[in-house]
């Protein structure tokens, strides 16, 4: 059942290229086939979710604001109920792999009561979320057994790319270009999976530590949060993710030989300042592991280790970097002999509030 893999988590990470293909073929023909009626008359989007799905929301907010020019907020589903009521012009988008997470379902019910339209992005046909929502979009990740969400997270990002491009008013030529790259993502991810030796090597080192800090900027910020969540969930290493600019405001105090830093470095307008952050971290004696483009030579001057991923349009780095960080978490946990598919104290779907 594990298809020759030692754990479901590794098997499921390896299913990612197929999952991207399946999710794309669900909603992408010559054009994006998503029916966007959920967006009619909408003045703002509020995303709600928990855990990894919450991180997908944070990434989705960047896409939507950047390319579709709609203002977006992200709320933990468990906190949504304490905030201002959405209006009839609000679209609430809930993201939930299982479609059964109690807090997310409750947030959806409350959103509807307050007059908002609700769209859910879920992986499970006929789940409770699909029955509450006004609109449903499916990820085609297939069953996910490992408690740690991996392939389903990437599928969520794919749906978010498609929604964003569907709603976007960018010039047609740009859209065509992005869709072309999106279709290449399965191949791109395969290349990451095929070149995992360096990740395995770095994992052997990270496995010796008890604290890790993950950093990134813009879309790399939530990628860092998700990388850290995956690491703590399966390896039990205390890992925290921060937007890189926050380091100076407290976490700097933790830097030093005992706290390696994992940085997501994207070749866009955040590149120079991230490089600077990496130098600052290095100067405080932390080991630095950087996820970077395979063409980036500059980074080698400052990083102790570089995890190379294929170069893509920066918005797709959320996929490439996340897959690399999932593998990093997996191999680190394996090195520490953890019960990877069923981490202690955790359930695959959290059906109590
Ligand atoms: O099924 P959902 O997407 O609603 O689940 C939300 C979280 O419980 C889930 O993502 C959790 O954080 C994962 N175990 C993370 O790997």
Automatic annotation (TrEMBL):
GO terms for cellular component: cytoplasm. Keywords: Aminotransferase, Cytoplasm, Glutamine amidotransferase, Repeat, Transferase. It is an enzyme of class 2 (transferase). The active site is at residue 348. It comes from the Archaea. The keyword Oxidoreductase does not apply. This is Glutamine--fructose-6-phosphate aminotransferase [isomerizing]. It comes from Ferroglobus placidus (strain DSM 10642 / AEDII12DO). The chain holds residues 239 to 591 of 591 of the full protein.
């Amino acid at each position: 059942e594990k298809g020759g893999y030692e754990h479901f988590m590794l098997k499921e990470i390896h299913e990612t290229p197929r999952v991207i293909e399946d999710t794309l073929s669900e909603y992408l023909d010559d054009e994006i086939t998503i029916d966007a009626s959920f967006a009619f008359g909408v003045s703002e989007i509020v995303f709600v979710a928990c855990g990894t799905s919450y991180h997908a929301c944070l990434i989705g907010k960047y896409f939507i604001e950047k390319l579709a020019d709609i203002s977006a907020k992200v709320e933990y589903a468990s906190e949504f109920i304490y905030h201002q009521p959405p209006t009839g012009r609000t679209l609430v988008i809930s993201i939930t792999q299982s479609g059964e997470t109690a807090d997310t379902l409750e947030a959806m019910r409350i959103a509807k009561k307050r007059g908002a339209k609700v769209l859910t992005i879920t992986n499970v046909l006929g789940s409770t979320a699909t029955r509450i929502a006004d609109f449903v979009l499916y990820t085609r990740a297939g069953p996910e057994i490992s408690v740690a969400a991996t392939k389903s997270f990437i599928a969520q990002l794919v749906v978010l790319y498609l929604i964003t491009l569907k709603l976007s008013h960018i010039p047609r030529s740009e859209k065509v270009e992005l869709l072309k790259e999106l279709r290449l993502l399965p191949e791109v991810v395969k290349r990451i999976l095929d070149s995992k030796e360096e990740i395995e090597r770095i994992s052997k080192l990270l496995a010796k530590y008890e604290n890790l800090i993950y950093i990134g900027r813009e879309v790399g910020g939530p990628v860092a949060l998700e990388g850290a969540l995956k690491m703590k969930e399966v390896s039990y290493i205390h890992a925290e993710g921060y937007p890189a600019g926050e380091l100076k405001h407290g976490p700097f105090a933790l830097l030093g030989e005992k706290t390696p830093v994992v940085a997501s470095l994207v070749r866009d307008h955040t590149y120079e300042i991230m490089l600077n952050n990496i130098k600052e971290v290095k100067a405080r004696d932390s080991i630095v592991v950087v996820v970077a483009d395979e063409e980036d030579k500059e980074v080698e001057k400052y990083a102790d280790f570089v995890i190379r991923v294929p170069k893509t349009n920066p918005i797709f780095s959320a996929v490439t970097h996340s897959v690399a960080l999932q593998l990093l978490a997996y191999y680190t946990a394996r090195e520490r002999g953890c019960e990877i598919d069923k981490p202690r104290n955790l359930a695959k779907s959290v059906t109590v509030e």
